[in-house]
Design a protein that fits this description.
Layout lengths: L4 E2 L14 H11 L3 E7 L9 H5 L7 E2 L2 E10 L12 H4 L3 E5 L10 H13 L5 E2 L11 H11 L2 E5 L11 H14 L3 E4 L12 H9 L12 H10 L6 H9 L1
């Protein structure tokens, strides 16, 4: 199956990434990607865009040449209370909110602290998807995170980049996450975590992990734009209604 949705990409607004929105649109057309999210790093990261970058995402067109653009963020989890570095009414203006651990913001400590932080982030209601939870630098209670994510309707990401250019050693954790997600009915989503447009929609390694765990395709959010948009609408992102309408017209 070709997956037409990518929920995790970075642009030159995060200075350790190398592509523009225009670059992503061109690659999306080439690869048959129908919907992608632009999710630059939250402002607490050293080289992240300013807070206003995310406020002003509203200037982006909804769809260009048949490719839909989700206005989003990969926020940083700041502390064990599950606070993130984007807040207030501005969160409701975004289409999608990702959040994860990043060493410059939340230095690795121990399994108990990491688990507490993830559980509180999930329970906060502010985050739709937890990014790269299989990072071996941040051991967690996988079973408890998957159970609570299912309870609160938050998806866990299987991050393709973790098996290729970053977070080496993630495979065993991610298989365990996919297996726990299968057990509890937790939603999974694949993200390229692309830092250059050429890797948009690259999911081969992530899908192999998901298949190894026997996770059902029917619960994978990437399976169509309509499925992901319905998930976001159900989580209270009214901003996606216009995108839903555009896809219904196609």
């Amino acid at each position: 199956m070709q997956y037409q949705v990518d929920i995790h990409t970075h642009t030159v607004a995060s200075s350790h990434a190398y592509s523009t929105i225009h670059d992503y649109l061109a690659v999306a057309k080439q690869k048959g990607i129908r919907l992608f999210a632009t999710t630059d790093h939250g402002p607490a990261m050293a080289d992240a865009p300013h807070f206003w970058h995310f406020v002003n995402l509203r200037v982006l067109p909804r769809m260009v040449d048949g490719v839909g653009i989700l206005r989003g963020i990969e926020a940083n989890i700041n502390n064990c209370a599950g606070e993130i570095d984007y807040y207030g009414e501005y969160l409701s203006q975004l289409d999608i909110v990702l959040a994860g651990f990043h060493e410059p913001v939340f230095p690795p400590s121990d399994k108990a602290n990491h688990t507490e932080a993830l559980l509180n982030t999930i329970k906060s209601g502010k985050v739709d998807i937890i990014t790269h939870p299989g990072n071996p630098a941040y051991p967690i209670d996988i079973d408890e995170v998957a159970r609570v994510a299912a309870e609160y309707g938050v998806a866990l990401e299987i991050n393709n980049s973790s098996f290729e250019v970053s977070r080496k050693g993630s495979e065993a954790n991610c298989i365990a996450i996919a297996a726990a997600a299968k057990k509890y009915g937790t939603l999974l989503v694949m993200g390229s975590d692309s830092h250059v447009a050429f890797s948009l929609g690259n999911f081969d390694r992530a899908k192999a992990i998901i298949d190894a765990a026997g996770y059902p395709e029917s619960r994978l959010l990437n399976r169509s734009p309509e499925v992901l948009l319905a998930f976001l609408a159900a989580r209270g992102h009214d901003s996606v209604n216009d995108l839903i309408s555009l896809f219904e017209e196609v």
